[in-house]
């Protein structure tokens, strides 16, 4: 069994209106040291072991459903865990 953590962020070239709003709000509530915020998403998967390569499988999941690769980048971490 694997625990997979997928971190998705907007590509640097993509405007992040949610991040801009968060930046302004943080500065307004007295956090002037915050200069930029980029908002992303975190996805956690529990995946059973199969004969397929887990890294390849996760890449396929990300490209086919979890990530909009036109505007988002992603990275992931895989941890082998005991059966649950």
TrEMBL record:
Catalyzes what? N(2)-formyl-N(1)-(5-phospho-beta-D-ribosyl)glycinamide + L-glutamine + ATP + H2O = 2-formamido-N(1)-(5-O-phospho-beta-D-ribosyl)acetamidine + L-glutamate + ADP + phosphate + H(+)
Question: Which Enzyme Commission number(s) are listed?
Answer: 6.3.5.3
* Coiled-coil residues: none
Alphabetical keyword list: ATP-binding, Cytoplasm, Ligase, Nucleotide-binding, Purine biosynthesis
Gene Ontology BP annotations: 'de novo' IMP biosynthetic process
Similarity comment text for this entry: Belongs to the PurS family.
According to its UniProt record, where is this protein located? Answer: Cytoplasm
Under the subunit heading, UniProt states:
Part of the FGAM synthase complex composed of 1 PurL, 1 PurQ and 2 PurS subunits.
Source organism (scientific name) = Lederbergia citrea
ATP-binding listed as a keyword: yes
Query: Which gene is the coding source of this polypeptide chain?
Result: purS
User: What name is this protein filed under?
Assistant: Phosphoribosylformylglycinamidine synthase subunit PurS
Higher taxonomy: Bacteria, Bacillati, Bacillota, Bacilli, Bacillales
**GO terms for cellular component:** cytoplasm
Annotated GO molecular function terms are:
ATP binding; phosphoribosylformylglycinamidine synthase activity
Q: Which InterPro entries match?
A: PurS, PurS-like_sf
Q: In which pathway does it act?
A: Purine metabolism; IMP biosynthesis via de novo pathway; 5-amino-1-(5-phospho-D-ribosyl)imidazole from N(2)-formyl-N(1)-(5-phospho-D-ribosyl)glycinamide: step 1/2
The record describes the protein's role as:
Part of the phosphoribosylformylglycinamidine synthase complex involved in the purines biosynthetic pathway. Catalyzes the ATP-dependent conversion of formylglycinamide ribonucleotide (FGAR) and glutamine to yield formylglycinamidine ribonucleotide (FGAM) and glutamate. The FGAM synthase complex is composed of three subunits. PurQ produces an ammonia molecule by converting glutamine to glutamate. PurL transfers the ammonia molecule to FGAR to form FGAM in an ATP-dependent manner.
């Amino acid at each position: 069994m694997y625990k997979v953590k997928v971190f998705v962020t907007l590509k640097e070239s993509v405007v992040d209106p949610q991040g801009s709003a968060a930046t302004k709000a943080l500065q307004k509530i007295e956090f002037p040291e915050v200069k930029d915020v980029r908002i992303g998403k975190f996805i956690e998967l529990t995946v059973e072991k199969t004969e397929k390569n887990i890294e390849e499988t996760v890449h396929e999941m990300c490209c086919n459903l979890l990530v909009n690769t036109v505007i988002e980048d992603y990275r992931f971490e895989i941890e082998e865990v005991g059966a649950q």
